[in-house]
Automatic annotation (TrEMBL):
Family of this protein: Belongs to the ABC transporter superfamily.
Domain ABC transporter: residue ranges: 2-241
Pfam families listed in its UniProt record: ABC_tran (PF00005), NIL (PF09383)
Source organism of this protein record: Agrococcus pavilionensis RW1
Lineage: Bacteria, Bacillati, Actinomycetota, Actinomycetes, Micrococcales
The protein's name in its UniProt record: ABC transporter domain-containing protein
Keywords: Amino-acid transport, ATP-binding, Cell membrane, Membrane, Nucleotide-binding, Translocase, Transport
Key word Nucleotide-binding present: yes
PROSITE patterns linked to this entry: ABC_TRANSPORTER_1, ABC_TRANSPORTER_2
GO cellular component, one term: plasma membrane
UniProt xrefs under InterPro entries: AAA+_ATPase (IPR003593), ABC_transporter-like_ATP-bd (IPR003439), ABC_transporter-like_CS (IPR017871), ACT-like_dom_sf (IPR045865), MetN_ABC (IPR041701), MetN_ABC_transporter-like (IPR050086), NIL_domain (IPR018449), P-loop_NTPase (IPR027417)
Entry function: Part of the ABC transporter FtsEX involved in cellular division. Has ATPase activity.
Subunit structure: Homodimer. Forms a membrane-associated complex with FtsX.
GO BP annotations listed: amino acid transport
Highest rank taxon of the organism: Bacteria
Amino acid sequence: MITIDHVSRRFGDGLDAVVALDDVSIEVQRGEIFGVVGQSGAGKSTLLRTVNALERPDSGTVTVDGTVITGLEGAALRQARHKIGMVFQHFNLVGNRTVAQNVEFALEAVGVKGDERRGRALEMLDLVGLAHRAKDRPAQLSGGQRQRVGIARALASQPDVLLSDEATSALDPETTRQILDLIKRLSGELGLTVLLITHEMDVVKRICDSAALMEQGRVVEQGALEQLIRTPGSRVAAELFPVGEAHYTPGHRIIDVTYTGLSADRPVIAQLSRDFGLDVSILGAALETIRGHQAGRTRLAVPGDASVALKVIDRLTSQGVTAWEVHP
Ligand SMILES: Nc1ncnc2c1ncn2[C@@H]1O[C@H](COP(=O)(O)OP(=O)(O)OP(=O)(O)O)[C@@H](O)[C@H]1O
């Protein structure tokens, strides 16, 4: 649905040059919510701006729903952009227009006129639970309500794709959860493909099906969340489950155990100690709700050598959890 294929973008020349995107390839499936995470300056905004062609790559292509966006210009580009909605961190609403007029703005751009435009704007506001505030000005709304208007505006032209640029970064945790749940609900109801950028792992944890981690313009990890949290050494998973640093423990092997779904409820570690007569210590543990399901990670120190570690990992694996040795 969104294919970012070997995209590179450099700003400036010579010694001052910054490589904002360095051979980035990402595939976002239709109907999926895909999160791109990374620290400030990693290239997330540049990536998002490349998807709606506000930024042109130096090389590579972006294809949205079969259309090569990076190859379009003029009217064809404007038309393609209407199929891509965008929500912003600071909402970008027009202060001297009413809430309804802000949504109508997006419909004006696609040539919807008069009563139909007003009707559609109200429908969109109804979708985000704000039809009763249609005549208010943005300044009369809370941050969360303003973002709802931003979402209604982004969806007014019936796009297939929603891009979200840190949509919840300016909101408090409870409002963040409500906005994320709204995006998830709308994505399901409207069959929207969502590409979001964020620096908050909570966003990924709550709504993303897949994620990519960016660092200095490169994608250093990507995949379905279920797959990433079971991948030894995954940095996305390490951020999702903060069990701390692994330190060398003399005479012990360190093993990370990751549980998802049903296996999260089983007392596998207690059973391991009983079965093997091992004095297993727990060095760290994190239990999280990931996309509505319980998942957890426990870091164990197991007395013994590599062969004991292998035996323990085998046993844990046969019980349906994922386990691997961590080498500090
Ligand atoms: N128009 C520009 N001109 C020059 N450099 C730019 C431009 N846009 C971005 N950059 C640089 O490209 C790099 C990536 O920036 P980008 O804004 O994409 O990162 P980001 O991950 O979105 O960061 P943040 O979370 O702080 O917005 C940074 O070093 C930035 O300074």
